[in-house]
Design goal:
One of its GO terms (cellular component) is nitrate reductase complex. By secondary structure, the chain is mostly helical. It has 9 helices and no strands. It has a single domain, classed as Transmembrane di-heme cytochromes, Chain C (Fumarate Reductase Cytochrome B subunit).
């Protein structure tokens, strides 16, 4: 079981992720969306969406730092283990609370707004269960041991995570890891495998070009600046 969970399941989840992305890009390109329900309700969505997205971005950034940046690197720039633990504890908890709050509002919105609820599929419900489960389990695991520097996952889970990329997974590192971290990792891997088959797929089509594109310049149509507008053609006139 240890070999399966930490030596087979990660690659299976990654294979399902890649296969799902390729399949949807080839055969379901028009379905590669969030299936937005903003047309049914926008007030709660305008609150929940940014709260969730900022929270989940901070959560992902924290995982990338914690799992893939060795302790020796942070110590080399003057961040000792205690300072890193405090940043991880408070920063990670804040990010998790943001993401969970955003999901909570989104679920409340779907449950209380009839058109939005009718547009919710079984696939969406499954996605919410695993996404919320992964976040809550991670927070509970982190907050379950806050004494000293907490659980030292940088000497077990982090090296195991990095070893996956060398195709030589060090499964023995996961043997003594607390159960909560085990469950959190398994739920996280299942969530990764589900991404292409849910609305979460839209993370791979985020419009990053908007960060570098030139500004769109809008000019006034003040007649004193641009002159009178030309007469409309017959079929463009109001009432025609």
């Amino acid at each position: 079981m240890n070999v399966f969970l930490w030596g087979v399941l990660p690659y299976a989840a990654f294979a399902l992720l890649i296969a799902g992305l390729v399949w949807r890009h080839r055969y379901d390109r028009f379905g590669w969306t969030t299936r937005s329900s903003q047309v049914y309700e926008s007030k709660l969505l305008n609150i929940a969406s940014p709260v969730f997205h900022y929270g989940i971005l901070f959560v992902l950034a924290g995982h990338l730092i914690g799992l893939f940046i060795p302790a020796s690197w942070t110590q080399a720039i003057g961040v000792n283990e205690h300072a890193y633990h405090l940043f991880s504890l408070y920063g990670g908890t804040f990010a998790g609370v943001l993401a969970v709050a955003g999901i909570g509002i989104l679920i409340y919105r779907r449950r209380t707004n009839a058109p939005v609820f009718r547009a919710t599929t079984a696939n969406d419900k499954l996605m919410y269960v695993f996404l919320l489960g992964a976040l809550l389990l991670g927070m509970i695991a982190k907050l379950s041991d806050t004494s000293g520097n907490g659980y030292d996952y940088r000497s077990t889970i982090a090296p195991w995570s990095r070893s996956l990329f060398t195709l030589n997974p060090k499964t023995e590192l996961m043997e003594g890891v607390p159960v909560l971290y085990h469950v959190h990792a398994v739920v996280g891997m299942v969530l990764i495998a589900l991404v292409p088959y849910t609305r979460l797929v839209h993370m791979f089509s985020a419009p990053l070009q908007y960060l570098t594109r030139p500004y769109v310049v809008y000019r006034s149509r003040d007649p004193r600046q641009l002159g009178p507008r030309p007469d409309r053609r017959g079929w463009e006139r109001a009432g025609s």
